[in-house]
Amino acid sequence: MPPPRLIFITGKGGTGKSTAAAATALALVRHRPVLLVDLEQRQSAARLLGLASDGAETTPPRDELSADLTAMTLSPRAELEAFITRTVPLAAISRRMLKSRTFGYVTAALPGLEAFLMLERLRLLAGQAALEDRFVVIDAPATGHALELLAVARSLKQLAPTGTLNRLAHAVDQFICDGNRFGVLLMLTPAELALREALAAVSTMRSEGGITAVTAAINCVPAALFTVAEMMKVEAIPEHATLARRRRDLAHGASRARRELDRAGVPIIELPLIFAEGLNSVALERLSLTIAPALGLDH
Questions:
Q1: Which of 8, 30, 284 shows the shortest CA–CA distance to 134?
Q2: DSSP class of residue 261?
Q3: By the 8 A CB rule, do 57 and 72 touch?
Q4: In which band, very low, low, confident or very high, does the pLDDT at 93 lie, cut at 50, 70 and 90?
Q5: Is there a contact between 35 and 135 (Cβ–Cβ < 8 Å)?
Q6: Most buried of 94, 206, 235, 269 (most Cβ within 10 A)?
Q7: Mean pLDDT for the stretch of residues 19-34
């Protein structure tokens, strides 16, 4: 089964979502052009791939592969202004609306409007990607903010039971519930708190958002290294014992996460613990090759 046209990557802070976004884009670009979108305006994933973005799509002058990789940054305010400009085609009137005090009151009364218009933009990007046969990878906010963002369409449908906003909210809701067009890659580490948050997020996405395509990526999974007998021997060297216990705990945490996510019916990707001072191109390539099969892609 091919990957969703748009992959929305989120997770608890510090779980490596921007790194996963960069690696996912790298895995996909071997097969189709990819647009990498930053919703937090930090450009962390873009920088990992040698991309820079000022809001427009940019292409890095690197090699043949990266020629099909572009990046852009979205901001809520810019999407609100673009929406008003599209809705009110007369430029003078739309500019006056955006500057008016009354319009400021309206947007303050609908705090989810800017977030909703970000989702609408993602829907449009996914539709354009389908026409152009490419993929979109979203470096999204951390889990809490991401859940608020994904829930805003259904909330807006209740606030605006008729009219343009209701029609758009219905279209956005259908979009995020369509596993062929929209999928979530949820990052976590082999830690109890990260696992609990991930399981709660999956439950919320499914029950309240109707999102069907959710995959969990367990990051920093270490290879099995020490037997029980070896652990007993290494206890005689305190510094080594501390490191060995840390690695053992990570391995046990990964096993526990694997069991509980599997019990919840969540597809799993395991990303290896990489021992490096910084994330270089070799490490990013390794992560992309790990992600590719889980996306239904050949290396």
A1: 30
A2: H
A3: yes
A4: very low
A5: yes
A6: 269
A7: 95
Q: What's the whole-model pTM score? A: 0.84
**Which residue shows structure tokens 């390539």?**
285
Q: How far apart are CA 145 and CA 142, in angstroms?
A: 6
Q: Could you tell me which of 37, 40, 29 has the C-alpha nearest to residue 62?
A: 29
CA distance 144 to 298: 33
Q: Looking at this protein, which amino acid is placed at residue 129?
A: A
Length of the chain (residues) = 299
Identify the burial level of 210 via C-beta atoms within 10 angstroms of its C-beta, where 0-12 means exposed, 13-18 middle and 19 or more buried: middle
Q: What is the b/e burial string over 28-54, where b = at least 16 CB atoms within 10 angstroms of the residue's CB?
A: bbebbbbbbbbbbeebebbebbebebe
User: What pLDDT digit, counting tens, does each position of 106-156 carry?
Assistant: 454 455 777 888 899 999 999 999 999 999 999 999 999 999 999 988 887
Encode pLDDT of 188-206 as tens digits: 999 899 999 999 999 999 9
Return the SS3 of 269.
Answer: strand
Q: How many CB atoms lie within 10 A of CB 185?
A: 28
Q: Which residue is it, tokens 């996909």?
A: 28
Facing residues of 69 across strands?
34
Contact residues for 297 (Cβ-Cβ < 8 A; gap 6+): 3, 27, 28, 30, 31
